[in-house]
Amino acid sequence: MKNKTTVRIFALALFAALLLSFSACGAANETSAPAGMKLATARGADFRLYIPTSWNSNTAYGISGGYYSLSSQSDDLSDQSTVTMVKYDIDGELGAALPKSNENGERCTYFFEHKLRPLLDIHAKGGVKLLEGHGSAALLGDKNAWQYHYSTTISSETLKFWQVVAEGENCFYVLTFTATEALYEMLKEDVLNIALSVKYGIPYEPTEPAKPIDPNAGAPEGMKLASNDEVAYCFYVPTDWRIDTSERIFSAYAPDGNGVVSVIPYVPNGSLSVVEYFKQMEAQMKNTAGDEAYKVTAKQINDFDFAGGKALKCEYTWRVGDVTYHYFHLIVAYKSTFYNFTYAADSQEAYNDNMEDVKAMIKAFTFR
């Protein structure tokens, strides 16, 4: 059976990242962070990830993690480093293929080579270079783990990676550190402390929602509000779509779990037009995944009627690994900000099945 978190982790999280490029005894909680560190754990994770207080936490897309930026005001990933931690369940097929022993990291290495490395190979330009310490023992919290060091060129930038893989109960935990060469050297001690500070426990439940939404707010018939007064728009979705209030961005998931709609703002620098902005995004998608992985499937329209104004509309596919995601993307300028209304689905069938709901969302969307 397909993992229903696929759309959330890839279609939404990767797209949002693209926008920026322009069994322990007790459960840990927010007050138990080690000295000089803070919580960077997403809702539902059965571990606690802590990062230095000088870093920025980022759990907006349902993934535990954070980043360090040389400039606190910069949205350019070229001066940032990122750390994420993800739990991967071992399904029947993977369980049958894994080596029986993990004495010398055989099971962790199999998972790295067959599940993590293939995704990297798709995006790497000019191959992957293995670095010192690749394939050696490490610790991830109090669990024995194996570490993998390598570098490659992605989107014309040479990046270094450090991944630490530990096996849990019918799962693997993966900590990933990604940075430019200079920042990698500068921050590697920080990341070592991040890895050693991981704790395991019951699923994390924040005491307060990341974005409270009034469930009794007025809405068109058959719909509900999926935004709040913190933003300049009203985003409505069908009542059977799911809203995750633990994520800071405003988004909703289709009842079958195979589609997601999000609204993400972007403040342009200078006199950038909507068309120029989208061209930059297209170039980034092609650089990241390759020309063949990004394909426009419908003629781009630059004067699509949306929210009382004119928007750029484009439909395209973007292949990530062995999954091709289908996108319906609107960009509208409103009061010096670009708003990205994006629908993504993990198959053509799911894309078509949810389109009537998406059209209803577009019709109901308004600015304040």
Would you spell out the secondary-structure blueprint of this structure?
Blueprint: H1 6-20, E1 37-39, E2 47-48, E3 50-52, E4 56-57, E5 64-69, E6 80-89, H2 92-97, H3 106-123, E7 125-130, E8 136-140, E9 143-154, E10 157-168, E11 171-180, H4 181-196, E12 199-200, E13 223-225, E14 233-234, E15 236-238, E16 250-253, E17 259-266, H5 274-289, E18 294-306, E19 309-320, E20 323-334, E21 337-345, H6 348-353, H7 355-364, E22 366-367
Antiparallel strand pairs: 1-3, 2-12, 4-5, 5-6, 6-11, 7-9, 8-9, 9-10, 10-11, 13-15, 14-22, 16-17, 17-21, 18-19, 19-20, 20-21
Could you explain the architecture of this structure?
This protein has 368 residues and is α+β, with helices and mostly antiparallel strands. It is 24% helix and 38% strand. Strands 4, 5, 6, 7, 8, 9, 10 and 11 form an eight-stranded antiparallel beta sheet that branches. Strand 10 and strand 11 form a beta hairpin. The longest helix has 18 residues.
Q: How many individual β-strands?
A: 22
Shape: globular
Q: How much beta, percentage-wise?
A: 35-45%
Sheet with most strands = 8 strands, antiparallel
Structural class: alpha+beta
Question: pLDDT below 50 for ≥5 consecutive residues: which ranges?
Answer: 1-10, 20-31, 72-77
Please state the average pLDDT score. Answer: 84
Please give the count of helices.
Answer: 7
Q: Approximately how much helix is present in the residues?
A: 10-25%
The ordered string of helix (H) and strand (E) elements is HEEEEEEHHEEEEEHEEEEEEHEEEEHHE
Radius of gyration: 21 Å
What is the terminal-to-terminal distance?
Answer: 42 Å
